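Quick illustration, no need to memorize.
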Amino acid sequence: MARIVYGGGGPFVTEKQHITIKGVKEGLLFLLDDACEFDELLRELKYKLEKSHHQVLTGPLIHIHIRLGKRTISEEQTAQLRAIIRERGNLLVQSIEAEQLETACAAQEQPGLRIISGVVRSGQTLRHDGHLLLTGDVNPGGTISCSGDIYVLGALRGVAHAGDEGGELAIIAAALMRPTQLRIGDVISRPSDEWVSEDAAMEFAYLSDGRMQVDKISQLHRMRKEPIVFKGV
């Protein structure tokens, strides 16, 4: 099967592709090569969405599930993937998952920090004592809670409760902030429709004078001199 590569004179064909698109019951499955450069994946993804697979991906709403293999990506790279796919108005990213990510990252976890790969589905509750990093989505009807901070490297569409033992300094961050409810300590967020933002940047919720606020994750350093660092994620 051929792959498209960009050169000085335009795209040309080579023998191998790094992105495989398969039809599944839930929509489409994007299988990403975990050995090539990430920028190369982005170039190929753009080409397939705009050129080679344009007709196949045209039509009603299609749910997209991305599998990274054993590759680990940063929150910025996650946002890049979502932004490219979001340009096609009928494509909706439902999940971005990596194989054995929890095992690969175990040695990098800080005390009290848990890293989990997967999707919290409707009716499911994920609870941890400490900080929690989820490389996946929280679907409507799903709940994620912990005594520390919550970081969702995916879409937060369910309920998130950080500092559930009374920690008012905790935060809730997500690559896509679309919660049905946010709670920090004993403070509950305002109506969910007020959280809708067109900004593709990762955001975080925090308490200021007892009221919940939201800002871009790049502003977290203003609150904390020593933020939690997730190496290799």
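Residues 101-222 form a domain with the Pectate Lyase C-like fold (CATH 2.160.20.70).
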